[in-house]
Amino acid sequence: MNILMTGGTGFVGTHLVKELVARGDTVYILTRQERTDSEKIHYLTWLNGKQPDLTGISIDVCINLAGAAIADKRWTESRKKLILESREMTTEALVSIIHDLQPKPKLLINASAIGFYPTSQTTFFLDTEEHEAADNFLAETVISWEKAARASGIRTVFTRFGLILGTDGGSLPLLTKQFAYLAGGPLGDGNQWYSWIHIDDVVRALLFIMETDALEGAVNITAPHPVQQKKFAELLGQAMRRPAKIATPAAMIRLVLGERALLLLEGQRVYPQKLLNQNFEFTFPKIEDALANLIEE
Q: What is residue 187's DSSP assignment?
């Protein structure tokens, strides 16, 4: 297949492109920077008034993973504007390309996030049910992001990613650094839910969506066994052979991170019902297995 992708050089994109190429697909990556092509990977510069040249190329699937990072900088008003607009503008530009393509791609996979759901310690959030959106910046961003993608006019899947665990990106390197300095443990009261997923299962889920026509709309991309943060910290400490007993007060986290502290102090108990209904099998369904795979002794 021919795949048109944004965000192909990011954390998830890099892992996904590797698997697409390995199975024989050709990937066209939309990028702002000039890059060198390979046999199966072609880079097309776009945005800033420039449209990619797709003449004579029949695109089967579009994948939109682009957007400014959410967790790495304080949420000033200018940063929040960049986070939101980078997703809206990129998605709108990709949708415009889709409208011009002939024949039309059969699928748009648009990145999204479980930040859509309200934080709760008791509710299970299923992608087979209607849920009210949270009342915060993350949910506002997800709503705008998904709305822009709905205009594609083709089958569209909103991949609501949870906490993605990998050694070369995502949240795990920051969390392991905390334990390396013997400062790991509960964040706040530790009762907030972590709906996580191994990067390998993220890639496998994306490939599965490409082959499963029944999947449409919001799809939770999380492992089927979320854990509370204090349990996550305990198991991570065990995997690293480090103590997990130093609690960080919520007030301190809010002082340091500001509004962004909700990423650590609040959570959602999310369940990947749609994937399981289609018999998707996780390689790492439980956090113990994922950490054993990712943490080097």
A: B
